[in-house]
Amino acid sequence: MQDSLVKDRQMFDVFRIDETIAEHEFVNPIRVIRGEKLSHVGTERTADNRDLGKPQPVQQKRQMVRQPVCIRVCGIVNTADSALAGQTKHRLVEDLASLNLRQRIILWEVRLPDALIALAVGAALGLAGVEAQTILNNPLASPFTLGVSSAAVLGASVAIVLAPSVTFLPEAAILPALALVFALGSGMLVLAVVRFGRGARETVVLFGIALVFLCNALTAALHYIADADAIQQIVFWTFGNLTRAGWTEVWIVSACFLLLLPFSLRHVWLLTLLRGGEAHARSLGIDVSRLRTWVILRSSVLTAFAVCFVGTIGFIGLVGPHIARLLLGEDHRFLVPGAALCGALVLSLASFLSKALISGVIIPVGILTAVVGVPVLLGLLFRQRRVS
Description:
The protein has helices at 2-14, 19-22, 29-33, 58-97, 101-136, 148-162, 171-196, 201-225, 228-239, 247-266, 268-274, 278-283, 288-310, 316-328, 332-356, 365-387. It is mainly α. Helix 6 runs antiparallel to helix 9 (228-239).
């Protein structure tokens, strides 16, 4: 017994931690060895337990040996994490402080709003697209199907042509204001058709297509009477460009998306049931006409606020929901946020490529959305076909 106690004493001395090292730890292991209470571990050592003359259970001895080592390791890890986080934060502050005025303007006024507006607009269009496809039971439906984007183009064209004669609004606010008004007006027309047409999806789709052709015809008429500079501005606006957005536009689009997202998540169960057919949904007591009204209202508002600042950006509201559907399935608990996320990622990728493809040239992002989205969508379709 005496020999085993001597061996345990030697092992205990090997693992003893120096007092000077332990001072830098969160918990002083010497205090634990001396018998003081360690509250966060829940163990307690007394002077009587340290008396080597008394027999002790083997498990208690092992705990006494291991406890200082474990505390030291945890302390080292915590200290390393805190030091690493502090160094990263300090380095980030130093990097931001070392920027000159020109670099700060490029970062805070150009690049960062550009990246954030891509996320906000892409998420809004993706959410509007998935709800339009579900409520109209049409895989080709998108925010453009309802005519909202075409109405926004018409409003922007009117603003560009009539801007010199409009004096009661700031020049920078005329174009997005009229684009927003025309887009919301088209949404109200679609809602009126839904209400008086008893919510039939065929009526909504046909009226949306007719509204698209009407807005395109009126926009072409404005092209006919406008001068060359105005036509150039209208055509450039229809390309879609994220660089014209600033912090105000970022906050407005983000607030619109965050405000309407909870209402969309509230209807995920109803939209999932609607995928089984309108007759099945009505048999379960769902008011399909009322649900269609709310969904079309949300899609119209999201699309209007998304395109009024950056122009028409096509294909995001179509390809984003399809990518999410192929990855996540038809359960709208996952499909609705997944479509918003896919739309934001696709538009962000298109925004990155618009700056990286040609050095010194920023390609309008609306040109690249289809170039980026079509291969991704086709690849997922072929992959799903091979799996099935």
